[in-house]
Design a protein that fits this description.
This protein is an alpha+beta fold and about 210 residues long. It is built from eight helices and seven strands; from the N terminus they run βααβααααββαβαββ. The chain has helices spanning about 15-25, 35-40, 55, 60-70, 75-85, 90-110, 145-160, 175-185; strands at about 5-10, 45-55, 115-125, 130-135, 165-170, 185-195, 200-210. The protein has a seven-stranded mixed sheet, with helices on both faces. α7 (about 145-160) links the parallel β4 (about 130-135) and β5 (about 165-170). The two termini are about 30 Å apart.
Length: about 210
């Protein structure tokens, strides 16, 4: 399901989230924050991120928390019963503390992000050609069509900018990525020996031609 996924231009404020995806997926792009910012600010690159509402991204965590609460329900109910038997203080200081606590919760809610970045794609353009720098999706958000949406977006925008041929490299063992790219019309056109490190592996080169 990708109903809640939104694609937008990547900004400098997204860099740390993108680098976190890079680190956790082990994509091997070698980006640093400075290097990524440098490419992001260039006129000959396109970068897009896939986002989803923060509430959706927190569903799994919420389910886990609910399970923990359920497991501790007996202990919790006893504590609540004891609390109910104590008269609530009615003095002004208690009311002030309640107000301050509510304000702190409101401030914390304001600081929470409205969206979570779940994937990104980058493209470097030269006259009539483009190279996909990387495309990555959070591991816990895969198999939801996010990579396909990102690929559709970057190909559309590349051709809108006059690019006719788009190139990329992919690990020889990454069958899932190879199938995805072939689905979009990329054709295998070469092999670069020992192109990748950690681990060392050959890269399959592929090209997508408009029309």
């Amino acid at each position: 399901m990708t109903d809640t996924i939104t694609l937008r231009d990547m900004t400098m404020f997204d860099i740390m989230d993108v680098l976190e995806i890079e680190e956790k997926t082990g994509s091997g792009s070698g980006w640093t924050d400075t290097g990524l910012l440098t490419y992001l600010l260039r006129d000959d690159t396109l970068f897009y991120v896939a986002t989803e509402p923060a509430a959706d991204a927190d569903d799994a965590e919420a389910a886990a928390d609910e399970a923990l609460v359920s497991a501790d329900s007996t202990e919790t109910s006893v504590d609540e019963s004891a609390a109910d038997s104590i008269a609530a203080p009615a003095d002004e200081s208690a009311e002030n503390e309640a107000v301050e606590g509510s304000a702190a919760e409101d401030d914390a809610a304001d600081d929470e992000p409205a969206e979570v970045i779940v994937g990104y794609v980058g493209l470097l353009m030269v006259p009539f050609e483009g190279d996909i720098l990387n495309i990555a999706v959070r591991e816990d958000r895969r198999r939801r069509g996010i990579a396909s949406k990102l690929m559709e977006k970057v190909l559309h925008e590349a051709y809108f900018n006059g690019v006719t041929d788009v190139h990329l490299e992919v690990r020889e063992s990454n069958e899932a990525a190879l199938r995805l790219y072939e689905k979009f019309g990329f054709v295998r056109d070469g092999l670069r020996k020992r192109y990748y490190t950690n681990p060392v592996e050959n890269a399959v080169t592929m090209t997508h031609r408009q029309g």
